[in-house]
Amino acid sequence: MASFKRYGVWADWNNPYLTLDPEYEAAQIEVFGQMSLQGYIYRGKKPVHWSPSSRTALAEAELEYPEGHVSRSIYAVFRMVSAPPSTSGLLNEFLPDLGLAVWTTTPWTVPANAAVAVNAKLQYAVVEIQSLLEGDSAAPANKKSRPGNVLKDQKKVFIIVASDLVPTLEAKWGTKLVIKKTLAGSDLENCRYVHPVDNRQCPVVIGGDYITTESGTGLVHTAPGHGQEDYVTSLKYGLPILSPVDDEGKFTEEAGKFSGLDVLGDGNVAVVKYLDEQMSLIMEEPYEHKYPYDWRTKKPTIFRATEQWFASVEGFRQAAMDAIGQVKWVPPQ
Predict the structure, then answer these.
(1) What 3-state DSSP class applies to 47?
(2) Which UniProt keywords apply (predicted)?
(3) What's the pLDDT at 65?
(4) What is the pLDDT of residue 143?
C-alpha cells in the first residue's frame, strides 16, 4: 500500500477492498450458507484432466503436449437393435445386421460408453461392407493397421457412417462400401444399440458441432465420464456419467472383466482384444497426435470424472439479473 501511495495511485486507502477482511469473509459465509440451505450447493461428477502418475487433477496450464505421441485408435461397430417409429421404415430392413461405426483414440473408454452422438446437419449412409477376401487388391491403406474380425467375416454386415466419409473409409479399410440408403443425422436420434461390453441398451443422441467429417466416421462414441464435449451432451440427455477408473488409472470393479488393469497399458489392450472377439472391431491403427502429459512426471494423463462440489445458479438466476438494475455502476458502461 505504501508503494502504491508513492506511485501516486489515488484510492480510498482508509477503506480498502480486501477479500481477507473478516467482515467480507463473514458475508461470504452467510451467502454460502443461504445457498446451501436452499439446495443450490450439491455434490456431482465432472470430468477433469487427471494424472495417474501423480494422482491429482491438473489444470490446463499444468499440461504439456509433446510431439510423437502415438495412440491405439480403433474403428468399432456397435450393433443396433431398434429405431424410433419415425425412422423404423428407413432402417428396419437392415436389422439385426446393422451397426453404428465409431472411431476413438482411447479404446479404454468404451466400457464407460453411454451413447453414440451424431450431427443433425450431416448426411449419413447405410453401407454394406464387402469382405476383405472378395478382392485381391483389398488391403488397408496404412500398412501398420490391423483389420478386425468384422472385416474378415463372410457374413453380410451393414453399418452407418457419414456419407462424405465413405470414400475415405473405403481406402482406409481396404474394402468396398456399397451405399444402400442415405438419411439425415436427425433421423438417427433415439435409435438404440447394444453396449459392446455389458449388453445394456444405449441411445443415439444429437451432439454438437464437434462432430465433423474431418476424421473418424461421423459418429462419436460418447463417454460422459471421460470427455468434456461428451459431458455437455450427457447433461442435455440425462445420460449416466460412468467413470470406472481409480486414482491410479486402473479399472475399478465397475468395469467388470477389466477390473484392476491399467487403462493406459494392459487395460487398453484388453478392451481392443475383447471388442475383436465380440465381432465389434473393424480396424485398429496407430494414430500420432497431440496428447496431454503431466508437466511434472512427463507421463500421459487421462480425462476422468471425479466427485466435486457445484454451485447451481438455476434457482436464483433471474433474481441476480434483476439485481443488476438496482446497482450503481462506476463507470456506468
Answers:
(1) strand
(2) Aminoacyl-tRNA synthetase, ATP-binding, Ligase, Metal-binding, Nucleotide-binding, Protein biosynthesis, Zinc
(3) 96
(4) 66
What is the grid cell recorded at 1?
Answer: 500500500
Choose among 275, 280, 231: nearest CA to 100. 280
pLDDT of residue 209: 83
Nearest to 217 by CA among 309, 116, 316: 116
Q: Is 75 helix (H, G, I), strand (E, B) or coil?
A: strand
Q: What is the share, in percent, of the chain residues with pLDDT greater than 90?
A: 74
Yes or no: say if 42 and 310 are a contact pair by the CB < 8 Å rule: yes
Q: What's the pLDDT at 133?
A: 46
| Contacts with 135 (C-beta within 8 Å, 6 or more apart), sequence order | 176
Q: Which helix (H) or strand (E) holds 234?
A: helix 228-237
| CB neighbour list of residue 108: distance below 8 Å, 6 or more residues apart | 251, 263, 264, 267, 268, 271
Convert the pLDDT of each residue in 255-272 to its tens digit.
Answer: 999 999 999 999 999 999
HSE at residue 326, side-chain half, CA atoms within 13 A, is 5
Residues 6+ apart with CB under 8 A from 53: 249, 294, 297, 299
Domains along the chain with CATH numbers = 1-40+312-325 (no CATH), 70-289 (3.90.740.10)
Non-local (6+) Cβ contacts of 287 within 8 A are 70, 71, 72, 73, 105
Whether residue 102 contacts residue 202, with contact meaning beta carbons closer than 8 Å, is answered with no
Locate 35 and state its grid cell.
445457498
pLDDT digits (tens, 9 = 90+) for 178-218: 999 999 999 999 999 999 998 899 999 999 888 888 888 99
Position 2: which residue type? A
Adjacency order of strands within the sheet including 41-51: 56-58, 41-51, 302-311
Q: Is 83 helix (H, G, I), strand (E, B) or coil?
A: coil
Q: Is the pLDDT of residue 134 over 50?
A: no
Residue pair 131/175 in contact by the 8 Å Cβ criterion: yes
CB atoms under 10 Å from CB of 176, counted, come to 15
